[in-house]
Amino acid sequence: MVNVLGAAAVVFVLAGLGYLARWIGLLRAGDERVLNALVYYFALPAFLLLELAQATYSRDVLRFMAAGSAPLVLLVLLLVLLRGLGLSRERFYLLSVSAVFGSLAFFGLPFIEYVVGGEEATRLAALAVGLLAPFGVAFVLTLLELYPAAGEGVSRALLRTLRRLGRNPLILAIVLGLTLGLGQVALPLFLVQILRYLSGTMAPLALFALGVFLYGRPYRALRQAFALSLLRLAVLPGLSFLCARLLGLSPLQATVLVLMNGTPLAVNMIVLSQRYGFHVEEMASLTLVSSLAALFTLSLWRLAL
């Protein structure tokens, strides 16, 4: 119990320092873009590339990856079914974005590193990101492309989404890392060392940037935001736990999978909501509420597991 609370405190303090830096004026409006660029274009791609390239893709790993994707697929199918039964278009979009687009890299990886610890847990977390992030990003971008024009065909939105994914540094790092890992291609030692140096900045910088990013946003409809956050913080990790048990995952694999699928809404959703005109205030409130609540819910999941 003490270890879990202490690790959660580390996450809270690092993000709080970022928020404090904006509040007292050490950082100005717009500085979060520099921090975000360091994490998004350098630290996280380096971490994912290194971990995925050096992973061993055994049958056990493939079972872990199947258990990770099944809960998301089940939840999406459930929402599609509810849409067919009369769920409104706006509610369907809100629920889908809230459920699928998790902060796997910015929040999940640092949380696993601090709370669970160990090379194996970190490797499994990287595999989870490699599996879940492309699906989540592609699904949400497709929804947002379709949102402004309800009558537009899905195929055109998919093409635009594929073009965006082709320029996404995280997706490119995941694809390259998986290709090298599956092909058992060894990276040169000097490149491994460079990637390790960049990867070492990932966890603290990502959490600090999260705090900076959350400062000064309009936060309203907090009760609705909390209700929406329950899909990611309670329902999805609950489904993940059931899938892990059904597929016979080890305790460590089940822990990593449940925690990664219980992460809050991705902070990049604030930027995407502004770009697409998609419930801007609701997404800002949901990001804040889910990020704070996740420290409590993830700690509970960790204790329960």
Kindly describe this structure.
- It is a single chain.
- The chain is mainly α.
- It has one domain: Na+/H+ antiporter like fold (Up-down Bundle).
- Helices cover 80% and strands 0% of the residues.
- It has 14 helices and no strands.
- The radius of gyration is 18 Å and the shape is globular.
Task: Give the SSE order as H and E letters.
Answer: HHHHHHHHHHHHHH
- The CATH topology comes to Na+/H+ antiporter like fold
Question: Based on DSSP secondary structure assignment, what is the total number of beta strands?
Answer: 0
Number of domains: 1
Dominant shape: globular
Q: Indicate the low-confidence ranges by residue numbers.
A: none
Give the distance, in angstroms, between the N- and C-terminal Cα atoms: 12 Å
Q: Write down the CATH class.
A: Mainly Alpha
Helix content: over 70%
Radius of gyration: 18 Å
CATH architecture: Up-down Bundle
Largest sheet, if any?
none
Query: Percent of residues in beta strands?
Result: under 5%
Number of helices: 14
Structural class: mainly alpha
Defining traits:
14 helices, 305 residues, mainly alpha, Na+/H+ antiporter like fold
How is the secondary structure organized here?
Elements (H helix, E strand, L loop, with lengths): L1 H22 L7 H23 L5 H26 L4 H12 L3 H13 L2 H28 L7 H12 L3 H14 L6 H11 L2 H13 L7 H25 L4 H10 L7 H9 L3 H25 L1
What's a quick, concise take on this entry?
This protein has 305 residues and is mostly helical. Helix content is 80%, strand content 0%.
